[in-house]
Automatic annotation (TrEMBL):
This is 7,8-didemethyl-8-hydroxy-5-deazariboflavin synthase. The keyword Ribosomal protein does not apply. PANTHER family: 7,8-DIDEMETHYL-8-HYDROXY-5-DEAZARIBOFLAVIN SYNTHASE, FO SYNTHASE (COFH). Its cofactor is [4Fe-4S] cluster. The lineage of its organism: Bacteria, Pseudomonadati, Pseudomonadota, Alphaproteobacteria, Rhodobacterales. It comes from Limimaricola cinnabarinus. The keyword NAD does not apply. InterPro entries: Aldolase_TIM, CofG_family, Elp3/MiaA/NifB-like_rSAM, F420, rSAM, rSAM_sf. Pathway: Cofactor biosynthesis; coenzyme F0 biosynthesis. NCBIfam families: F420_cofG (TIGR03550), PRK06245.1 (NF004884). SMART domains: Elp3 (SM00729).
Length: 380
């Protein structure tokens, strides 16, 4: 699993010839993934919106003094899961603030009322609840994790993820989006990415585009992800996410990245990353998202038929049928996938708890994608 043409990718990216870069990216995508574009039908559970970090772009986080600050109860978690189940979801995405109990008394009290002293332990039990009471596969997006936290969460999840965001240490300085965010220092993010690989967790990661990083920093981040994958084989997908401006964030006046910037970054990612790594960009954060297909993506990520995108609440999910139609018009077929990619189910022992694996294998037939993706996994 060596890096695919990294120098060519960087060179093409540097020359400014966007068309040539996108053509290379498309070629790699077509060879590895064909003309099938996937998504995961998911229910979204924002377990808590309290967080010890205060990223300048985040509208999800709420200070404990806010009336909107909350920790969902097990009953609420289960209600969301059941709603998702009824709508045919297969994934339950836990997305949450990071270690709020280390910073806020209110978070400690809230967890205590639920019988916990640490958010990760509560998350573990909620994953277990979902596995016990529903047919869904938990995916955990809880940000930076320690070795021990990965050990706690791996047995109760099908896959995990954490956006690397950026490798820029500059962005942790005063006045920058990651200032005073202990979980967003590149060294911590890179460590989590590495540990997830050592511990063989099917892993989702990615870059947040347009938060002040340079082009070189994006390329460096992509190489870092690819290098971790070359060591451990755990990176199942990489998300290229565009920053969204909102009125209620520190970065309310920061410009959003343009379409061309996204296309160039997506294409560079496809050229740099190993071909078997799925390349994802969100369908709800740009009116022109169909153009991402020309830059080499093969996946739209999670789409929820039951809840809003809590991270970008002002942007509705596309209706799945209408997304299918626009993919078709562009020459692609939209297909459902599971949160965990087939190569971690069929080969590579040790990447997933055997009972979760059995459940996922039972569901894989329903997506209709099992055979094709398995093929990709085997040839990679
Ligand atoms: O709805 C969202 N889903 C996000 N997802 C979920 C993703 O869309 C799907 O659930 C995965 O593709 C499942 O494999 C993430 C998952 C991660 O592991 C890491 C980061 C993200 C980021 C987002 C996000 O911003 N919005
Ligand atoms: C779950 C992921 O959502 C992303 N995220 C957080 N805030 C924003 C925003 N304003 N625009 C786009 N993406 C955002 C981060 O990359 C985080 O890791
Ligand atoms: C709501 S943000 C997603 C989870 C985590 N707090 C992170 O930033 O990675
Ligand atoms: S992006 Fe994640 S880590 Fe940053 S403030 Fe929001 S919830 Fe916390």
């Amino acid at each position: 699993m060596t890096s695919h043409l990294p120098s060519t990718g960087a060179a093409l990216a540097e020359t400014g010839d966007l068309d040539a870069l996108m053509a290379s990216a498309r070629q790699i995508r077509d060879a590895a993934w064909g003309r099938r574009i996937t998504y995961s039908r998911k229910a979204f559970v924002p377990l808590t919106n309290m967080c010890r970090d205060t990223c300048g772009y985040c509208t999800f986080v709420k200070h404990p003094s806010s009336p909107e600050a909350r920790i969902m109860t097990p009953e609420q978690v289960l209600a969301e899961a059941r709603r998702g189940e009824r709508e045919g979801c297969k994934e339950l995405l836990f997305s949450l603030g990071e270690k709020p109990e280390l910073r806020y008394e209110a978070a400690r009290k809230g967890l205590e009322r639920l019988g916990y002293s640490r958010l990760t332990d509560y998350l573990r039990d909620m994953c277990e609840l979902v596995l016990r009471e529903t047919s869904l596969l938990p995916h955990v997006n809880a940000g930076t994790l320690t070795d021990e936290e990965i050990d706690v969460l791996k047995p109760v999840s099908a896959s995990m993820g954490m956006m690397l965001e950026t490798v820029s240490r500059r962005l942790t300085r005063k006045g920058q989006p990651h200032h005073a965010c202990p979980d967003k220092t590149p060294v911590q993010r890179l460590r989590t990415l590495e540990r997830a690989g050592e511990k063989r967790v099917p892993f989702t990661t990615g870059l947040l585009i347009g938060i002040g990083e340079t082009w070189e920093e994006r390329i460096e981040a992509l190489h870092a992800i690819n290098a971790a994958h070359a060591r451990h084989g755990h990176v199942q997908e990489v998300i290229i996410q565009n920053f969204q401006r909102k009125p209620d964030i520190e970065m309310a006046n920061h410009p959003e990245p343009g379409l061309e910037d996204m296309l160039r970054t997506i294409a560079a990612a496809r050229v740099i990353l190993s071909p078997e790594i799925s390349l994802q960009a969100p369908p709800n954060l740009s009116a022109r998202h169909i153009a991402y297909l020309d830059a080499g993506i093969n996946d739209w990520g999670g789409i929820s038929p039951v809840t809003i995108d809590f991270i970008n609440p002002q942007h509705d999910w596309p209706e799945i049928r209408s997304l299918a139609r626009s993919c078709e018009a562009a020459g692609f077929e939209l297909r459902e996938r599971l949160t965990v990619y087939p190569r971690y189910l069929t080969g590579n022992a040790g990447f997933i708890n055997p009972s979760v694996r059995t459940r996922a294998l039972g569901m894989a037939g329903g997506t209709g994608l099992a055979r094709e993706q398995r093929h990709i996994g085997e040839t990679a």
